[in-house]
Amino acid sequence: MQSNKLFRNLFLLCIAVALIVAGYLLGVRNRIDSSHNEITTISPNNAIENSLSQIQTRDVTGAINPGSVNIFGQFYYKIVDNRTEILIKLNNVPEEVKTDSQSKKIPDKLKISTADRGLDGLNYEYQEIGVISFDEPKNGVRSASFTTVIEPNEFGRPLISSIERIVFEPINDEEANIFKDSSPDLPQNVRDNPAPYFWIVL
Q: Which residues of the chain have pLDDT under 50?
């Protein structure tokens, strides 16, 4: 009689332990299922992919003398949830553009706009995204940086995917560049206008 009671108590104890273990394992599984995937991708050169791996870069170019196009910085961008995070860094920018007969000071502030080819194909449609300000000159050159987030277009897609260029232009018309960019890649009517001081080709 006493042995039957002992076996019954042991049986109930085993059931209780099994239920506790099953509940714990179920909770762990639910917690893992609801957590974000953590996958480490290793490329052939043993580099580990991280969030910075998604950053893309383009050159910031400009012309400070006739017939000479130079690189003056980098444009970094990353698409997160169809919003485009951007960082622009300009370095070693001279204080002026010049030809043999004339020169013009590059403005201390430049308007940054996206440029998308219009429906007629002859012009750009511009959308201002901000203003970049240069630091005080050091040894005759200046630097500047700018960051912002570009919202998706009306279709919910990253706006960067439909942009042809990003241009850096003066805020006031009287500060316009003395150069014109006659590149055949530009819309026909844009080639007749003063060139941006700097631009990014996407």
A: none
Rounded Cα distance between 58 and 90, Å, is: 12
Which pLDDT does position 2 carry in this prediction?
57
pLDDT score at 39: 53
CA angle (109, 176, 106) in 5-degree steps: 45
In angstroms, rounded to a whole number, what is the distance separating the alpha carbons of residues 177 and 62? 11
Indicate the pairing of strand 198-201 with strand 56-65.
antiparallel
- 165-170 vs 198-201, strand pairing mode: antiparallel
Q: Exposed (0-12), middle (13-18) or buried (19+): which is 118, by Cβ within 10 Å?
A: middle
Separation between Cα atoms, residue 75 and residue 86, nearest integer Å: 7
pTM confidence score: 0.75
Q: What is the pLDDT of residue 115?
A: 94
pLDDT the model gives residue 43: 58
**Per the structure block, which two tokens stand in for 198?**
């700097």
Q: What is the 3-state secondary structure (H, E, C) of 50-80?
A: CHHHHCEEEEEEEEEECCEEEEEEEEEEEEE
